[in-house]
Design a protein that fits this description.
The protein has 735 residues and is α+β, with helices and mostly antiparallel strands. 44% of the residues lie in helices and 10% in strands. The protein has 26 helices and 24 strands. The strands form ten sheets. A four-stranded antiparallel beta sheet has the order 5-4-3-6. Strands 9-8-10 form a three-stranded parallel beta sheet, covered by helices on one side. Strands 14-19-20 form a three-stranded antiparallel beta sheet. Strand 17 and strand 18 form a beta hairpin. The longest helix has 21 residues. It is globular, with a radius of gyration of 28 Å. The N and C termini lie far apart (57 Å). Bound molecules: the ligand OC[C@H]1O[C@H](O[C@H]2O[C@H](CO)[C@@H](O)[C@H](O)[C@H]2O)[C@H](O)[C@@H](O)[C@@H]1O and calcium ion (CA). The site of calcium ion (CA) has 7 residues, from loops.
């Protein structure tokens, strides 16, 4: 006990103010773990035990006033969780959305008791950022069942860049991690998109994984309260079969590994972990996973990135492709392919581990199989140009979209057949009515969804015919990566086991790099012919039906630089001519305003068009500019994107969302297009952010220099930062 202001104050526990919530607010176990760790690290730090906080568990005498805590020491507050939460929300959340933001018009100050005075002396917590951090901390403490807490002031006014990075690395990734097995099926099985009257966990197991079928059947039998439905998938996955599952949507099983059960000393199965995007997307996605991996790797979570590569290999083996996502209704479509780059990045980090080369071998074999059987054959391959298109098979209305999504398209057909909207969808999906025009519409719509860019006026009603810059850049990258992997890691001769061959490549016993180098050269040549426009300094999609280059300006043009397909001259022209057309306040827009055209009631905004910006476009562009030596451009774009995210995080209660309106400086998270914005509807504290935006934040920080990071921490707009740096450089030059 110490004397302070006449009160006998109990000694205050010392905990790193920035420790993870489970340590900071956690149970006795985590406190004990912390104590052990602290002992291991420092003999001089004061020990911390549960008893230390017993003295704080009584009720707070409330007295307004004295602001006389000893200076020079970091301040700590003693706070009763429930009453303070109530008072805070009542006073400061004036628009009642359970968040404290710059749009609330409360007094923006609340007094809390100091820990040193046992809560008797009170000081003010002021301003939106600190008050919203207080709300977040109290919300999390309540989640941990805490009634009273000792809270470091440092946790409330933490540098926002450090706070957001810390949350992403230590909380958000955890909250987004899933594994499909008995321990997790209740969480992983949930599908916020489930449209049926009786949503329940359901798992489809491929016939090639009978062990898993037995495993899940036992779980279902032993845990009837789960209502887990276990179904063996047909060996022959056709569009009609997939449509027949429409009333029984379910998860598709993923890879499992064995682990030793400590108690029974027996081996048992556990799911290989993966990260979900967040919001309504609670499954393993194709290209989201790649983007997330970039962030996971810099967050020292290579294990999760590795897990996702292993799960992709499982998907290719059992479902024939990397799926849009592992739900039954996504069985016929894929997403933009990134497997080779992802595997190489993971390999780079694990190469000293004993199974690293085997990991790379499996990944490259799977990528080769995917290349031949998904992307380089019809219907996706255009035999005339040799370029590829997003063009998945499928049938009917995509059931995972929001009910109103196709209303304007389908209602005229329902009227024509004298049916209600619902009756018509049912009749069309079961082929009781035939509408060839609609078939064509949905073929393109499925292609749009396979492209990941759902939806955009660039792709609507035409996507299945487009040899897009994005897809062909990615396939070029596959070709050069595969060549390089075979040459460098497998002595230029990679044996292809029978299970990795396809009907078209059944006689290929081994692969060598030359054929892949040749393919890459050919693709570059064809893209130069079909997609490159030297006058406009950009690559454009090519319409294989009309046999002409399109004119929609898309940020995917920079993927040609990301993949290394653009020549240095093309890269210079793109930097000079194309970049200014896409660069906005918060980074790159997905497409230009001119290409999108006018929008209004009859022609609503599409989420992958101007003025929206998405994490994948930013991340790929940074790497693209760095690859060709345009460091200043890469840094500037990264800074602008991170500035926008940080500012929204500070002003809007820690918000991190799926996409941003990059032309909107004040509230860029406001996106009304299509299904709105994922990540906005949290209560009190954000728990998971959004997968690829989390990744872009920590990945982007790696690109910025220390000076930029500091400027970001003080929410300095790019122009102000740039002016300051230029002034400093000028004065140094003059000196
Ligand atoms: O349910 C509507 C659509 O939702 C997904 O698309 C969007 O979210 C995905 C996950 O973050 C992302 O990969 C995609 O780029 C987004 O446009 C889904 O992928 C679509 O197939 C689905 O129709
Ligand atoms: Ca509010």
């Amino acid at each position: 006990m110490t004397e302070r202001n006449g009160h006998r104050a109990p000694s205050i526990p010392i905990v790193d103010p920035y420790s993870n919530a489970d340590v900071y607010y956690g149970d006795g176990d985590s406190l004990a773990r912390l104590r052990d760790r602290r002992r291991a690290f420092s003999a001089t730090l004061q020990d911390f035990s549960r008893e230390d906080i017993q003295g704080y568990l009584g009720s707070t005498p409330s007295r307004r006033g004295s602001h006389d805590e000893p200076s020079g020491q970091p301040r700590k507050f003693r706070i009763e969780v429930d009453p303070t939460l109530d008072a805070l929300l009542k006073q400061e959340d004036t628009d009642s959305n359970m968040q404290i933001t710059i749009e609330d018009i409360g007094p923006k100050t609340i007094s809390v008791g100091t820990a040193g005075s046992s809560g008797i002396n009170r000081v003010d917590v002021r301003g939106t950022y600190m008050l919203s951090n207080l709300l977040q901390e109290l919300t999390i403490a309540k989640d941990y069942g805490r009634k009273t807490i000792i809270l470091d002031e440092a946790r409330l006014n933490e540098n926002p860049v450090s706070r957001l990075s810390r949350l992403i690395k230590h909380s958000f990734w955890k909250a987004l991690t899933r594994r499909i097995d008995g321990s997790n099926i209740e969480v992983a099985g949930k599908d916020p998109k489930d449209w049926t009257a009786d949503p329940r966990p359901r798992i489809y197991v491929p016939p090639g994984a009978p062990q898993q079928f037995e495993y899940y059947s036992n779980i279902a039998k032993n845990n009837p309260e789960l209502r887990l439905d276990v179904i063996m998938l047909d060996a022959n996955i056709t569009p009609d079969y997939v449509m027949s599952l429409v009333d029984k949507p379910g998860l598709l099983a993923l890879a499992m590994q064995t682990k030793l059960n400590d108690k029974t000393q027996e081996e048992e199965l556990e799911g290989v972990p993966f990260v979900v995007p967040g919001g309504r997307f609670n499954e393993l996605y194709g290209w989201d996973s790649y983007m997330e991996s970039l962030g996971l790797i810099v967050s020292d979570r290579v294990d999760l990135a590795k897990g996702m590569v292993i799960n992709f290999c499982f998907e290719i083996k059992h479902y024939g492709k990397i799926l849009n996502a592992n739900r039954s209704y996504y069985l016929t479509r894929s997403q933009p392919p990134f497997l080779t780059d992802m595997a190489l990045r993971v390999y780079e980090r694990i190469k000293t581990e004993p199974d690293a080369l085997e990991f790379l071998r499996n990944a490259v074999l799977a990528a080769i199989k995917e290349y031949y059987s998904v992307w380089a054959c019809e219907p996706r391959l255009d035999p005339v140009t040799g370029l590829s298109r997003y063009r998945p098979e499928g049938w009917g209305v995509p059931p995972e979209t929001e009910p109103s999504h196709f209303l304007h398209i389908l209602q005229p057909y329902a009227d024509k057949h004298g049916m209600t909207f619902k009756e018509f969808v049912e009749a069309y999906n079961t082929r009781k009515v035939a509408e060839p025009e609609l078939d064509e519409y949905f073929m393109h719509d499925r292609a749009v969804r396979e492209s990941g860019h759902d939806t955009s006026y660039r792709l609507e009603r035409v996507c299945g015919n487009l040899a897009t810059v994005d897809l062909n850049s990615l396939l070029y990258k596959y070709e050069v990566d595969i060549a390089r992997i075979i040459r460098i890691h497998f002595k230029d001769k990679l044996n292809i086991p029978v299970e990795f061959r396809t009907p078209l490549t059944k006689d290929i016993e081994f692969e060598s790099s030359a054929a892949w180098d040749r393919r890459a050269r050919k693709r570059k040549h064809r893209m130069d012919q079909c997609c490159w426009d030297a006058e406009r300094g950009m690559f454009f999609d090519y319409d294989t039906a009309k046999k002409e280059r399109t004119s929609y300006e898309t940020a995917t043009t920079f993927w040609a630089m990301w993949a290394g397909l653009a020549s240095p001259q093309q890269a210079a022209m793109m930097t000079e001519k194309a970049l200014p057309r896409f660069e906005a306040f918060g980074g790159l827009v997905s497409g230009t305003e001119e290409s999108r055209g006018p929008v209004g009631l009859e022609r609503p905004n599409r989420q992958w068009d101007y003025p929206y910006g998405w994490a994948p476009q930013q991340m790929l562009a940074w790497t693209a500019f760095l690859r060709y030596g345009y460091q200043e451009e890469a840094e500037r774009l990264a800074y602008k994107w991170l500035y926008m995210i940080t500012k929204a995080f500070v002003d809007f209660n820690g918000i991190v969302v799926e996409k941003y309106d990059v032309t909107r400086p004040i509230d860029p998270h406001r996106v009304d297009a299509e299904y709105g914005n994922q990540g906005t509807n949290f209560k009190g504290a954000p728990r998971e952010g959004f997968g690829w935006v989390n990744a872009s934040y920590v990945y982007g920080l790696e690109i910025l220099n220390a000076h930029m990071r500091r400027a970001l921490g003080t929410i300095t707009p790019y122009e102000t930062y740039k002016k300051a740096v230029s002034a400093q450089e000028a004065s140094e030059a003059a000196f």
